[in-house]
């Protein structure tokens, strides 16, 4: 789950770069692929990861998730929420 969220977050960054910077050119099919994975799938994957993480913490499961992944995913969800409102 964390890998999917991180991959989608990378595509989110690429999508934002494509929208904001004119020098960052991509072919149309690649830009569309980035937009779907980055702008649509990334927030959903991040929310699913956080719900999954809460479930792990509540059941006291022994699944180990690196802290840097958790911090990155929560930070990117915060950035995506801020980007949605501005």
Taking pLDDT < 50 over at least 5 consecutive residues as the criterion, the unreliable ranges are none
What characterizes the major β-sheet? none
Given helix and strand content, the structural type is mainly alpha
Summarize the amount of helix as a percent range: over 70%
Intertermini distance: 28 Å
Into how many domains do the coordinates divide? 1
Mean pLDDT: 89
Radius of gyration: 14 Å
Helix count equals 3
Secondary-structure element series: HHH
Number of distinct beta strands: 0
Strand content: under 5%
**What shape does the CA trace take?**
elongated
Descriptive report:
This protein is mainly α and 86 residues long. It has one domain (2-85). The protein is 81% helix and 0% strand. The chain is built from three helices and no strands. The chain has helices at residues 2-20, 28-59, 67-85. The radius of gyration is 14 Å and the shape is elongated. The mean pLDDT is 89.
């Amino acid at each position: 789950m964390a890998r999917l969220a991180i991959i989608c977050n990378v595509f989110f960054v690429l999508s934002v770069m494509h929208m904001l910077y004119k020098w960052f050119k991509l072919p149309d099919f690649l830009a569309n692929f980035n937009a779907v994975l980055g702008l649509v799938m990334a927030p959903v994957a991040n929310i699913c990861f956080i719900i999954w993480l809460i479930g792990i913490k509540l059941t006291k499961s022994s699944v180990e998730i690196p802290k840097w992944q958790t911090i990155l995913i929560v930070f990117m969800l915060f950035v995506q929420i801020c980007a949605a409102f501005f």
